Amino acid sequence: MPRDTHEITKDDIISLENYESIRKEKRQESILRKKFRRIAIGPYATIQFESWESMWLQIQEMLRIEKGGDEQLVDELAAYNPMVPNGSEFTGTLMFEIDEEERRTAFLKTLGGVDQHIHILIGDEKVTAEPEQDIDRTRADGKASAVQFVHFPLTAEQVKKWKSMEGQVMVQIDHPNYGHAAIISDECRRDMTRDLD
Description:
By secondary structure, this protein is an alpha+beta fold. The protein has one domain (3-193). The chain has helices at residues 16-37, 52-66, 69-80, 101-108, 156-164, 186-193, and strands at residues 38-41, 45-49, 89-96, 118-122, 125-128, 130-131, 147-153, 169-175, 178-183. Strands 1-2-3-7-6 form a 5-stranded antiparallel sheet. It has a 4-stranded antiparallel sheet with strand order 5-4-8-9. Helix 1 (16-37) crosses helix 2 and helix 2 runs antiparallel to helix 3. The longest helix is centred in the first third of the chain and has 22 residues, at 16-37. The chain is globular.
C-alpha cells in the first residue's frame, strides 16, 4: 500500500467483499501495532499514534458498517486523511477516559485548552501539538472534548534526532489540572519512524 504518498485515495480502498476476506488479518495486525503505539499518560489519558494503516483500516471499517458506497467514501476520505502523518509529523488521537459519566464531565470541565498542553519531548526539545482544525475542542463553558486529534510537526533536525534512536523520547501533558508524562518505548519509536520521510 502506498503509505509514502501520505494520503489515502479511492484507489487504495478495496471492495467490501475483498475487505471481508482479509479483515480478520488486518484487524489482528492493527491490534498488535496498537499495543505499542497506544500510550497511557497518567490515570485518565491515552494517546494512540496514528498511521496510514490505522486510518485506512478506519475508513474500511466505516464503509463496512454503513455501506454508503462511493458517496460515503468521499466523506470518509475527507474525515480521515488529515490524520495520516505527512512525512514530517506525528498524529495522534488523545482520549480522556473515566467510566462514570458525572465524574468524567466534571473532570473535562477543568481541562479547557488542554489541546495547547500536549507535547512530545525529543531529548531536551519540546514539540507542542497542533490540534486538528475540524472543530473547536473546548466549548465556551471551558469543557474540553474527551477526544482530541493532534499533530506534532517536526523540524528536519528533530526528525534526525528521532531516527537516531539516541536519548529518551516522551509524550507529555502539562495542563495546570492534568500534568503527566510517559516514556515512548524504543519499539514504538521505531514503528513511528516509518511515518517519517
